[in-house]
Amino acid sequence: MLEPSGFAKMTKRTTLFIRIVEGKNLPVKDMTATIWKTLSPFWGEEYNVHLPPTFHTLSFHVLDEDSLSRDDVIGKVSITKEVLATKPQGFDGWMSLTEVDPDEEVQGEIHLQISIQTRRLRCHVFEARDLARKDRNGASDPFVRVRYNGKTHESTVVKRSCYPRWNESFEFELDESLCENTLSVEVWDWDLVSRNDFLGKVMFNISKLHSVQQEEGWFRLDPDKSKSSEYEGNLGSLRLQLRLRDERVLPSSHYRPLTELLCQAVSTNLNGNQPDLLMLIDETTTAESRQEVATNLVKLFLGHGLAKEFLDVLFKLELEKTSESNTLFRSNSLASKSMESFLKVAGMQYLHRVLGPTVNRVFDEKKYVELDPSKVEIKEAGCTGLHRIQTEAEVIQQSTQHLQSYLTELLHSIVKSVSHCPPLLRMAFRQLCERVQERFPEREYRKVKFIAVTSFLCLRFFSPAIMSPKLFHLREKHPDARTSRTLLLLAKAVQSIGNLDTLAVRSKEPWMGPLQPAIQQGIAQLKEFITQLISFEDKEELGEERLSLQPAGTLKEGFLFLHKTRDKCMLMASPFKKYHVTLRSNILSYAKTPNSKKSSFVSLQKVRAVEKVEEKSFGSSHVMQIIWSEEMEQIEILYLQCKSVNELNQWLSALRKSCIHNTETLNSYHPGVFKGDRWSCCHQKEKTGSFELQV
User: Fold this and answer.
1) Distance between CA atoms of 351 and 187, rounded to whole angstroms?
2) How far apart are CA 284 and CA 438, in angstroms?
């Protein structure tokens, strides 16, 4: 039986940081060219993945997306846990893609008991876990094939499960005269139409089994023998940055002394004293770990309501070390990384509101846009109505009109967004302006406070999101080549406006000249916007109740798939339905639409536990359960399914923080579901609402 994280003595967590950088020299897969085709792609995507401590190998598959048929598999790269463990500082390099052999794509373990009983060889197959998903439904239909001495037995097929349970026995007549005295236990995915898919196997040497008579346990499934590849070295390469870390997470009380020291360091600064601890962290943090340190510190101080004060300390430390105003906050210092993380945590909804409409319009219109004469493709800009090819000048003129339209719409959205900007962001930006003005009070530096704000808001927030909308969750997929170029040029224009200097851009990239009037006008608009953004008298003017990360007291919201059951009743075949979920300080509500008048509620004061659900319960690793009790101690459960592990962790964190002061929390709970006549986690048949079973 697992315990809620707040009551666990210690939790071991294996975390893998992944940055998929780029690929090169990939083979041609498409028969016809497409506008997004590239053989040297750049992704730049980052993930933090929590892995089971028992994992063995990590594989990355590169696919060629096809809209009309199944995606083509180009190749894969694999790296073992042992290799990652020998590189504590992380791995960063190119790895050659190898051919994907279906018989090598195995994972998971099988629970077996092999025994010898009076010239009989007996194999008892209990269950398997974490099998590969071979079918389109996201699961497999596994069965076991046991081979010995030319004879074969097969188990029943368990439909749609990566965690099958067979509990079947197979017997063979023992033949000690065999030279190859081997028992083979294979797991296969049954298919009605096509051939069965191989899921892995375990081999046993029966001669060695004689000494112990019986062997039982979980055995890792191994791939079949690898075959030689005709494409060896011809499938291109993939650049990866990986860092594996095993962590032991203790109860929160163990971290309280450090937390108190950090909060005290911020409070010391408020009293006019030097924040020695934060100075030490600032001076000793390495470039490689600075982003991670900044992100964790921002989250910690946000949780304690001291984010603004923490950033103020870093602003002062950075300004003390800066003598040139034109280099202010341009390096990857702890202050810059912390402010960048703060914007991503506290301002993501604001970013979506400001950039979303324009970015979506660029994706939908797919206009050909190019200002650089050396990159203009005349054939892409044909005028079929006039039966002629456009000139280079005409292409640039038309591109300028498109970009001016996008830029005008975006600037209008920014200028009108003052009231939608989270108060916490506005307070941080005003604080930044005040510190910069104190450091550079001379008249010739009157523009520096605006540049300090735009260096974060435009150069580190708006522009990166425009260039890579998927990384900021503005779009589900990366743009094609044409859309990507349009977004890049639009981001360059926003950067130019953020620099508040049109002359520098004109000398560096003179082909951006046609946009200079729009950029010059944008600079004036941006200055006026910043003036309004930081203009308020005090907290009361912003509204004390609005000083949360999201407006109107909303802590988190979004569409999730939900299923509610009372007393762990039997689950339906497809129990999840899409709802808009809103988390506020005291309740969790969900309805069909964001503006629906009919909503259901869960009082957070009555929540007993908020935890993940085992993957085998629903065939998804992104499900969590909220357990609460209504009248007469009746237990109710709400299951929430998220789209990704990052979204799941965000909801878990937000809910746990909201319920941190609840007193009637559970000491134990079932991590599975009561389905059919038994629990999926422990296979016990007794259904109880107390959750005090020891599993």
Assistant:
1) 48
2) 27
Cα distance between residue 588 and residue 600, in whole Å: 8
How many alpha carbons lie under 13 Å from residue 300 in its C-beta half-sphere?
19
**Contacts for 260 with CB less than 8 Å, ≥ 6 apart:** none
Do residues 533 and 571 share a domain? no
Residue 456: closest CA among 296, 295, 329: 329
Q: Which two tokens stand for residue 174?
A: 């023992």
Q: What is the pLDDT of residues 40-73, one digit of tens each?
A: 666 667 777 777 767 788 888 887 776 655 667 7
Give the model's pLDDT for residue 546.
44
Paired tokens of 414: 């920014």
Cβ contact 184:203 at 8 Å: yes
Round to whole Å and give the CA distance between 25 and 181. 47
Are 38 and 132 found together in one domain?
Answer: no
Number of neighbours of residue 51 by Cβ within 10 angstroms = 14
Dihedrals phi, psi of 483, to nearest 5 degrees:
-65, -40
CA distance 150 to 186: 14
**What does pLDDT average to over the chain?**
81
Residue 226 forms part of a structural domain: no
Task: Read off the CATH number of the domain in which 559 is found.
Answer: 2.30.29.30
> Which regions in the chain score pLDDT beneath 70?
1-13, 25, 27-44, 53, 66-71, 103, 178-180, 211, 226-233, 270-274, 379-388, 502-507, 537-553, 565-575, 597, 630-633, 687-695
The reply to whether 93 and 110 lie within a common domain is: no
Handedness of CA 606, 612, 616, 619 (dihedral sign): positive
Question: Whole-structure pTM over 0.70, yes or no?
Answer: no
Q: Transcribe 407-458 into DSSP letters.
A: HHHHHHHHHTTGGGS-HHHHHHHHHHHHHHHHH--SGGGTTHHHHHHHHHHI
| pLDDT per residue as tens digits for the range 210-267 | 767 788 999 999 888 765 555 556 778 888 888 888 777 777 788 889 889 898 888 8
What pLDDT score was predicted for residue 118? Answer: 79
- The answer to whether residues 204 and 215 touch, using CB atoms and an 8 Å cutoff, is yes
Range of the domain at 287: 251-339
Instruction: Report the domain count for the chain.
Output: 5
Give residue 673's identity as a one-letter amino acid code. Answer: V
Query: What secondary structure letter does DSSP report for 598?
Result: -
679 to 60, 502, 561, 620, 676: CA distances (angstroms): 34, 66, 22, 17, 8
Amino acid letter for position 199: L
Is 503 contained in some domain? yes
Largest CA distance in the chain: 99
- CB-based contact 292:408 (threshold 8 Å): no
pLDDT at position 294 is 92
First to last CA, the chain: 4
Q: How does strand 109-116 pair with strand 120-129?
A: antiparallel
